[in-house]
Amino acid sequence: MKTEGTAEGIERFSSAGKGRGLRALTHYKVGDLLFTCPAYTYVLTVSERGNHCEFCFARKEGLSKCGKCKQAFYCNVDCQRGDWPMHKLECSSMCIFKENWDPSETVRLTARIIAKQKTQMEKTASEKLLTVIEFESHLEKLDNEKRELIQSDIAALHHFYAKHLEYPDNAALVVLFAQVNCNGFTIEDEELSHLGSAVFPDVALMNHSCCPNVIVTYKGTLAEVRAVQEINAGDEVFTSYIDLLYPTDDRNDRLKDSYFFNCDCKECATKGKDKAKMETRKMNEPPKPETIRDMVKYARNVIEEFRRAKHYKTPSDLLEICELSLDKMGDAFEDTNVYMLHMMYQAMGVCLYMQDWEGALRYGEKIIKPYSKHYPPYSLNVASMWLKLGRLYIGLEKKSLGVKALKKAIAIMEVAHGKDHHYIAEIKKELEDH
């Protein structure tokens, strides 16, 4: 195995069968911080404008808006000045297009990478071990549908970014969009709500495992990587690229579709959790294998249908999709089955949006125990569910249950986010207030 570059406590190396990877040079205990990585560049998602600062992602009230476009919000003049080199790419365009300004987040992020590469000649603090130009694109593995989506993004880039951007040629843009699709990160808050997209080159160096030994969390636009298992000197550092809720075949389909590989980790080799994740109804005659196969196919189709329907259906229509699919799947699947849990989670999200707090709580109470079983320890999915439940209990005047749930969230988050994270301080403040 060849070493290719080092930073404090970690090194880049050639990982057998995986290409580049990251390896520990020292021992890390659960909860230890391995390294941090500032974003190379990033964008705040449009729906969070006004709630978070465009530059530092701080969540606060009374943000000041950009005087020109009136769409970007900042903590103060320093944040506004700091963001101008990137905001200027969009500011005048938003003024021209108004409500018709709607490039995708991928297009917005890619525009910022192009702009940064024109002005940034040296390696940045986020590229100690891997540079953006080294990103894998998997260009030769893209099917026609993915290539067409990239061409659509390129057209949007030209349409919305004509004034402040010098474009590379089409072939270079195809490579860049493919690189962003494989190496971009989504920044989420403590309840896993989407805040934005970013590029963290050194974080992108880590390979995937379905039993990861580190977790990536965010402090504003800084990525922090912490151990969630004991890591010894010489061990490879693994994160997870995908949601680990699903059974092995489903996880590998997702990895193949987005990242073009199959996972060979211990969990994928043994399929140790698949039986519990695919729990079927206890009946006199258990469902036949073909019935289960058909139901999984139905579940995966309805998940995709729901993802698309979010963009054009009303909340009550979305809730109906969830309830109908839960009824149908419930003929064969137990409530602990991961496909049932997926639709319950979607239904809970719709209830929260509709401010149906009792409905959201009913779904959350069904979800939390199987989540704790199916996910690895120190899972952000489990922490965020405890957090949502705690806040719902307190809002519904079930204080003792709320306090217990918030404490369970904190116990996970102190490992995943670090004890000094402002999210934990905010939750402890909620506990004090109640």
From TrEMBL:
<dbReference type="GO" id="GO:0008270">
    <property type="term" value="F:zinc ion binding"/>
</dbReference>
<dbReference type="Pfam" id="PF00856">
    <property type="entry name" value="SET"/>
</dbReference>
<keyword id="KW-0862">Zinc</keyword>
<feature type="domain" description="MYND-type">
    <location>
        <begin position="53"/>
        <end position="91"/>
    </location>
</feature>
<keyword id="KW-0808">Transferase</keyword>
<dbReference type="InterPro" id="IPR011990">
    <property type="entry name" value="TPR-like_helical_dom_sf"/>
</dbReference>
<dbReference type="GO" id="GO:0140999">
    <property type="term" value="F:histone H3K4 trimethyltransferase activity"/>
</dbReference>
<comment type="function">
    <text>Protein-lysine N-methyltransferase that methylates both histones and non-histone proteins, including p53/TP53 and RB1. Specifically trimethylates histone H3 'Lys-4' (H3K4me3) in vivo. The activity requires interaction with HSP90alpha. Shows even higher methyltransferase activity on p53/TP53. Monomethylates 'Lys-370' of p53/TP53, leading to decreased DNA-binding activity and subsequent transcriptional regulation activity of p53/TP53. Monomethylates RB1 at 'Lys-860'.</text>
</comment>
<keyword id="KW-0804">Transcription</keyword>
<keyword id="KW-0539">Nucleus</keyword>
<keyword id="KW-0949">S-adenosyl-L-methionine</keyword>
<keyword id="KW-0863">Zinc-finger</keyword>
<dbReference type="GO" id="GO:0032259">
    <property type="term" value="P:methylation"/>
</dbReference>
<dbReference type="InterPro" id="IPR044419">
    <property type="entry name" value="SMYD2_SET"/>
</dbReference>
<dbReference type="InterPro" id="IPR046341">
    <property type="entry name" value="SET_dom_sf"/>
</dbReference>
<keyword id="KW-0489">Methyltransferase</keyword>
<dbReference type="Pfam" id="PF01753">
    <property type="entry name" value="zf-MYND"/>
</dbReference>
<keyword id="KW-0479">Metal-binding</keyword>
<dbReference type="InterPro" id="IPR001214">
    <property type="entry name" value="SET_dom"/>
</dbReference>
<protein>
    <recommendedName>
        <fullName>N-lysine methyltransferase SMYD2</fullName>
        <ecNumber>2.1.1.354</ecNumber>
    </recommendedName>
</protein>
<keyword id="KW-0963">Cytoplasm</keyword>
<keyword id="KW-0156">Chromatin regulator</keyword>
<keyword id="KW-0805">Transcription regulation</keyword>
<dbReference type="GO" id="GO:0005634">
    <property type="term" value="C:nucleus"/>
</dbReference>
<dbReference type="InterPro" id="IPR050869">
    <property type="entry name" value="H3K4_H4K5_MeTrfase"/>
</dbReference>
<feature type="domain" description="SET">
    <location>
        <begin position="8"/>
        <end position="242"/>
    </location>
</feature>
<dbReference type="GO" id="GO:0005829">
    <property type="term" value="C:cytosol"/>
</dbReference>
<dbReference type="InterPro" id="IPR002893">
    <property type="entry name" value="Znf_MYND"/>
</dbReference>
